[in-house]
Amino acid sequence: MSVNPDLELSQFDYELPPELIAQTPAAERSGSRLLHLDRLSALHDRQFIELPALLRAGDLLVFNDTRVIKARLAGRKESGGRVEVLVERIVSARAALAHVRASKSPRPDTRLILADGAVHATVTGREGELFALEFNDDVLTLLAQHGSTPLPPYITHAADQEDDARYQTVYAREPGAVAAPTAGLHFDDAMLATLAAQGVESAFVTLHVGAGTFQPVRVERLSEHVMHAERFHVQPDTLEQIRRTRERGGRVIAVGTTSVRALESAAASLRDAAAGTHVEGDTRLFITPGYRFELVDALITNFHLPQSTLLMLVSALAGMEPIRRAYAHAVQSRYRFFSYGDAMFIESPNHS
Fold it and tell me: In 3D, which of 299, 296, 287 has the Cα closest to residue 255?
């Protein structure tokens, strides 16, 4: 679907006092606030612990089960200059694509000495802004032993043990993300058990969130924006659960914008679910106002950066004016923003 040529970046801006950017998580996972934007575009101030009261038996929550890897490594070039590596995608046991920060871009065959010499990597080429690296051992093993959790750029402290635990959902199982699917950070085991007991079903997709999620949109006309690619996978049993949910009149509720992107990217394959197909690949789906959602009826999400593609996505689901009003209310009411911040429950005005 093409982007409306009249949409401009400046339409998705808002003023955010820096002190509202959450630097640490709430004391308890489910202890955040929840701003409810209902299908009539009315706003309700709630607590996240009240979420079960907003859902009903027969609804389906779709979670992204990606697991954040300790993707950040610091070190130096063999020639001496300092470098920082952020692994973006693992492409084989010992190879990865990564962002490399250095005073001068490393050329092919440059050797990087990382983690005080415990990790060695050789630059083998480039793919756009990413560097192809060959490591001295299994990449996932090296990162688990020597890497650090890649916190977002707006979080000012270095990752510590609390971040290792809290910047990860309780249901994470498929390693590969370099940013958390943050809407899921609000769910703890007790909340999941409560929802299951009242007949709310759960399903999973996998979308490995890339660092591109934090990259600014650099064009004013959104039709000129090139969306970053992220790897996703939707199993046939998830597609079957969606089909059954629709048949019984339940709602498909995505937990996070990454679940939305995975589901909508797989939408064309829903009709093939009975054949046991699964859907996987890279998605560059760019969801902006005017997009017609095929699978998603509602969304649980955090608050997003000004002028971000994620703010455009939620504006597509709820409408631009209701989202502007919701964000202005959230700022005025001192909600906490971004990855460690508070949540929203957004019901599409197109679904009863």
Answer: 299
User: Mean pLDDT of all residues in the chain?
Assistant: 94
User: Poorest-confidence range of 130-134, 263-267, 322-326?
Assistant: 263-267
351 has a pLDDT exceeding 90? no
Q: How confident is the model at residue 350 (pLDDT cuts 50, 70, 90)?
A: confident
What is the signed CA dihedral for 39, 41, 46, 48, rounded to 10 degrees? 50
Q: Are strands 66-68 and 174-177 parallel, antiparallel or unpaired?
A: parallel
- Which own/partner contact pairs does 74-83 have at CB distance under 8 Å and 24+ positions apart? 74/114, 74/115, 75/112, 75/113, 75/114, 75/115, 75/116, 75/119, 76/112, 76/113, 77/102, 77/106, 77/110, 77/111, 77/112, 77/113, 78/110, 78/111, 78/112, 78/113, 79/110, 83/112, 83/114
Q: Is the dihedral of CA 103, 108, 113, 119 positive or negative?
A: positive
Q: Rg of the chain's alpha carbons, rounded to an integer?
A: 20
Decide: residue 38, CB within 10 A, 0-12 exposed, 13-18 middle, 19+ buried: middle
φ/ψ of residue 109, rounded to 5: 80, 0
Output the pTM of the full model. 0.95
pLDDT score of 139 more than 60: yes
- The pLDDT of 258-262, averaged and rounded, is 97
The single-letter code of the amino acid at 336 is: R
Alpha carbon 244 to its chain's center: 26
As a whole number, mean pLDDT of residues 330-334 equals: 98
Domains and CATH numbers, the chain: 9-68+163-347 (3.40.1780.10), 72-146 (2.40.10.240)
Number of alpha carbons in the 13 Å side-chain half-sphere of residue 345: 22
- CA pair distance 71, 147, nearest whole angstrom: 6
Strand partners, 77: 112
